[in-house]
Amino acid sequence: MGNANAALGPGGVMYSNGNAVSGPLDSLIDLLIPAKCDEFDKDYVFSFLLSSRLFVRPHELLGRLLSSVPDHEPLDRLVGLLGLWTKTFPYDFRDERIMCHVKHIVARCANTELGDRVSDLLCALLNRLTDLEHHEEELRACQSNTEKTNMKWTSASQLAQLLCRIERKLAKHVGPEEFLQCNGNVLSKQEGSSVCAQNGTPGNQDPKKTCNLETYLDWSARLRLLVSNDILQCDGITERSRIVEMWSGAAQYCLLVGNYNSATAILESLDATPVARLTGTVNNKLSNKSLLRDFSSANCFPP
To answer: Which GO biological process entries does UniProt record here (predicted)?
Structure first.
């Protein structure tokens, strides 16, 4: 059954409830730059910049937009789009090819009223990319560190606060495009990039420039191992029960503050076979685990 609110607009673009939902690539690209600088549809810009990389590379898209503006016309609308682009997808600008187009924009805006505006957005972009580089350096340093550290936590709340800080630090660097680039279809296109490049296929995708999402997922796996090892290394049932209670309390605290990733990792570890088989320990904390599972189901996966 068709959508009663759907309508065909100029350029073959299909609209639903006033929002563009499909259309020819060229027509959708034209919608990125509105007639006036203050009329940007931020939701559309975000959606298109994210999904369009399935069909056209970011540097090719910016090149097409730049070439569409004659040399004698101001670039105020394109600069406005560039400001949104650098805020939502800053990692695109680690590519020298897209920075070549940015340099052309800077040159055309020099000695104009747009010069200061371009300078400000490039400074903000530089700060964002510098922050990412520092983050990557810290990750490499942690991965190369082979020293064993004996970690102790005095309370469940202290442990949960540490987990929340780690989660925030890792999650804030994950770019939205990384979820799309990890899609199986996109990865298969990347594997065949050399063939696509020879044929000039516009759907050819560049390899990922960051691994923040993979690092975040790896952290979750390491947390599950940490919880299991921390419990299994205990000598007696009393100490083991204390550790289980501490991790259960940390999971409950994480759920209360919205740190569902850490809470889920802890709960999965408590239900893992090596831990669950410790019936003497687990039975003592069964009611606490059931409460946590019920809380998790109600808050993490609402109907």
So the answer is: Ras protein signal transduction
